[in-house]
Specification:
The complex is a heterodimer of chains A (245) and B (200). Chain A contains 10 helices and 3 strands; from the N terminus they run H-H-H-H-H-H-H-E-E-E-H-H-H. With 245 residues, chain A is mainly alpha-helical. A 3-stranded antiparallel sheet of chain A has the order 2-1-3, with helices on both faces. The longest helix of chain A is centred in the first third of the chain and has 23 residues. Chain B is mainly alpha-helical and 200 residues long. Chain B is built from 9 helices and 3 strands. In chain B, helix 1 packs antiparallel against helix 3, helix 2 packs across helix 3 and helix 5 runs antiparallel to helix 8. Chain B is globular and about 50 Å long. The chains are: A mainly alpha (245), B mainly alpha (200). At the A-B interface, helix 2 of A face helix 1 and helix 3 of B.
Chain lengths: 245, 200
């Protein structure tokens, strides 16, 4: 019952948030996402597959979204479908409570649930035209990283340094404080009840068709398609403690 | 003596007809493996404790030590790829010699079951890593998997006879997201079982 009530609150909160921002963000879907619930669905790309051509080719976008992300969603649904007490949780709760989940599905939820959260965050923080964020977010970046150039440098280094598959992300807490993390495989900051403001996927499938072994070139080019208006929207939600995933 | 990239024991195009294209082998051997060798030499250069040690010794002494993770990653990947190139054959790929087949049947329940288990390990290795056919310390064959740059030498699981690289760079140009198809093809058409049998 407790879980069901919380789920309802989360859904209502997400809906209200989306409605409240609809007018300001009429041109594109909100980057502040509702907490996903079972049965999980693959969110559509919020732009055409060619929208990130300045960094990512169409074939990579299609494979990444239509095949890789879709497989994670299918595997996550399969993992929880017969475990109602887990299926009743929103995604953020599944990941935050991983150690309490039945051992038989814990790894599948970690990997596929983490993937679903990471990729759901990933699509809307792209589709932009890069540049440098201003306003409150720009101020926070200067405060927490020294400068935007230093953030980019640290982010790119962390991305190159993540051995094997993984992610590099900037986290935002409810006070607006920013921090940089690299995580292996599909481990999500939600596992530590933290929130990614934005992040980049450094699994080889994210860049191999265009960049092959040159991960550093991919990381450098990626900033050309970063969507700062969308990330600013996520930052405002984080400040209000309303960034679900 | 610095570590060196061993030459491929066949041409870059030699496995193209079997499902591993020339570009994959050029990138995999000349770029990825080379980068591991270069990085490993850089670490050895800066660390007196590593100088003069064999590759096996470096893998063993760096395993499980968080402060030596970058050394382990690159040493492990050098060791893994040295084996990997020998684990593939343009001439006898996929053909299992009689003695090995007998042992696979005795220890793993038959060739089909071995391939199913190997595929399950390869597909179940979430993220980057390797699937292995190992001769265990008990003298029996077994199938295992390791993440990233680890291997049966480091884990002490036995002698690696066959290792299949399931980092996406091994198969993305040829198979895209379809890792199960890559592994099935590798087992059926590419794997050098004659080399594996000779290691027993």
């Amino acid at each position: 019952m407790l879980i069901m009530r919380r789920r309802a609150l989360v859904l209502a909160g997400g809906a209200a948030l989306l409605a409240g921002r609809a007018s300001a963000q009429a041109a594109r879907a909100s980057a502040v996402l509702a907490d996903p619930v079972y049965p999980f669905v693959l969110p559509p790309l919020p732009y055409a597959a060619g929208a990130n051509e300045a960094a990512i080719d169409v074939a990579t976008m299609e494979l990444h979204h239509d095949k890789h992300h879709a497989a994670y969603v299918a595997n996550l649904n399969a993992a929880v479908k017969d475990v109602p007490q887990v299926a009743a949780m929103p995604l953020s709760a599944m990941l935050a409570k991983l150690p309490e989940l039945p051992e038989a599905i814990r790894n599948a939820v970690r990997n596929n649930g983490g993937s679903h959260a990471n990729h759901s965050m990933f699509w809307p923080v792209m589709g932009g035209s890069g540049g440098e964020p201003g306003g409150e977010l720009g101020t926070a970046i200067a405060r927490d990283f020294g400068s935007f150039a230093q953030l980019k440098d640290g982010f790119n280094r962390a991305g190159v340094g993540q051995f094997g598959s993984g992610w590099v992300m900037v986290l935002a807490d409810a006070t607006g404080k920013l921090s940089l993390v690299a995580r292996p495989n599909q481990d999500s900051p939600l596992m530590d009840a933290k929130r990614a403001l934005f992040g980049n996927d450094v699994w080889e499938h994210a860049y191999y068709l265009r960049y092959q072994n040159r991960r550093a070139d991919y990381l450098a080019a990626w900033w050309n398609v970063v969507n700062w208006p969308a990330i600013t929207e996520r930052y405002q939600a984080a400040l209000g403690g309303k960034l679900a995933i | 003596m610095a570590f060196e990239l061993p030459p491929l024991p066949y041409s870059h195009a030699a496995l193209a007809a079997q499902g591993m294209c020339q570009e994959t082998l050029e990138l995999h051997h000349d770029k990825h493996h080379q980068a591991y060798v270069t990085a490993l030499n850089g670490f050895v250069e800066k660390n007196e404790a590593l100088k003069g040690k064999s590759l096996e010794e470096i893998v063993m002494l760096s395993h499980g030590k968080p402060d030596m993770a970058p050394v382990f990653n690159n040493a492990g990947q050098h060791w893994n790829h040295n084996l990997f190139w020998q684990n593939m054959s343009p001439t006898s790929g996929g053909k299992i010699p009689g003695a090995l087949e007998k042992k696979i049947t005795a220890d793993l329940g038959g060739v089909d079951k071995f391939k199913e288990a190997f595929k399950a390990a390869a597909v179940g290795q979430f993220g980057s890593g390797w699937a292995w056919l190992v001769l265990g310390t008990d003298g029996k064959l077994k199938v295992t998997k390791t993440p990233n740059g680890s291997n049966p030498l480091a884990t002490g699981e036995g002698k690696a006879l066959l290792g299949c690289d399931v980092w996406e760079h091994s198969y993305y140009l040829d198979f895209r997201n379809r890792r199960p198809d890559y592994v099935q093809n590798w087992l059926d058409k590419i794997a050098n079982y004659e080399f594996a049998a000779a290691q027993m």
